[in-house]
Design brief:
This protein is α+β, with helices and mostly antiparallel strands. 48% of the residues lie in helices and 9% in strands.
Length: 333
């Protein structure tokens, strides 16, 4: 072995574990710049995984790796999307693991798997993500920290979110395994597992839970002369306009205008579903009643024109004047 090799080996031995890890990170970064980035084969920003009150951007890469974007991973536990450098941050660890409170509870498997993965999204943007398997391992670290009283009060929400995610994923996991071995996965609707997950997460963490049921959309598709596919979540873009007209403009005086005003002021509300802005005590029950009523009116209507005529009589737009029908058989009202 030559002197240069001996010198390099000696320097490596003198480095601390943290310094060696940091050197490995720099080497990995250099490799990233040289190696071609993997592209996505499935996934898009408008089809996120919904867990709790957040939407998690996720993809499948061309080598089969399932990834969650870094921002999606952080939002899942209510952490800041920006990874701030704090004085006690352990820079030898992957970015999402640098919170000092969970450091003693990190498993070797988690540290190994939590190296960021750089990839190209379907919009040709570069993104950082993590293997999907990291999410439950990360949740376990937060739950262990809570169990040992290691979390500050402002970190308790992260452990609560971790608990809900673990409970939901456990239930979905066993169903997915059974579906796979029985072959049922080929028959189930595309969003079936997501719907099961929704059913199990706690209500206070899921204001996004499904409000407009399949029957409502099935009838709306029929009246518009469109084919309804239960396995697809795609809807024509103009359905948003129809929903505003059928539902929110007729729900109660001023509701539609107030929701629009709130969305204009708050970016997060603009990204949320409109029904998330209704109060759980009064707004949501009234909305469910209205949806049930409009579903019944749809079923009784043979055409879009007949439906709108019936809707205007039963649920007129607030602030408008409904024209009463005239009878020519002298029976009147």
């Amino acid at each position: 072995m030559n002197n240069r090799s001996n010198g390099g080996k000696k320097r490596a031995e003198n480095l601390s574990a943290e310094q060696r890890s940091l050197a490995a990170k720099h080497a990995a970064t250099a490799r990233w710049k040289q190696e071609p980035l993997l592209k996505t084969v499935s996934g898009s920003p408008d089809r996120p995984l919904r867990i709790g009150d957040v939407e998690i951007e996720c993809y499948v890469l061309e080598d089969g790796t399932r990834v969650i974007t870094q921002s999606g991973m952080l939002e899942a536990l209510g952490r800041s999307r920006r990874l701030n450098k704090t004085p006690d941050a352990d820079m030898s660890l992957p970015p999402i693991l640098r919170t000092s409170a969970i450091r003693p509870y990190l498993s070797e498997e988690l540290i190994k798997d939590a190296e960021p993965i750089r990839f190209i999204t379907n919009t040709n943007a570069r993104a950082n993500g993590y293997r999907a398997e990291v999410l439950p391992l990360w949740c376990e670290a937060w739950l262990a920290a809570r169990e040992n009283g290691a979390l500050a009060p402002n970190q308790s929400h992260a452990a609560k979110a971790a608990e809900v995610i673990m409970r939901g994923l456990a239930r979905v996991g066993i169903i997915a395994l059974i579906d796979e071995v029985t072959g049922y996965q080929e028959k189930r609707a595309r969003d079936a597992l997501a719907q099961i997950l929704e059913a199990y997460v706690e209500k206070e963490l899921q204001p996004w839970v499904k409000t407009f049921d399949t029957e409502w959309y099935k009838e709306l598709f029929r009246l518009r002369g469109l084919k309804f596919d239960v396995s697809s979540v795609k809807k024509p873009s103009y359905f948003g306009y129809l929903t505003n007209n059928i539902v929110y403009k007729r729900l109660a005086p001023g509701v539609f205008e107030e929701i629009k005003a709130e969305r204009a002021k708050d970016e997060r509300k603009r990204r949320a579903k409109m029904h998330q802005q209704l109060t759980p005590e009064f707004g949501h029950p009234k909305l469910r009643e209205h949806i049930a009523s409009t579903t019944a009116i749809m079923k009784l209507s043979k055409s879009w024109e007949e439906f709108m005529s019936n809707l205007d009589r039963v649920h007129p737009v607030y602030g408008s004047t409904t024209q009463l029908p005239l009878w020519d058989d002298e029976t009147g009202l």
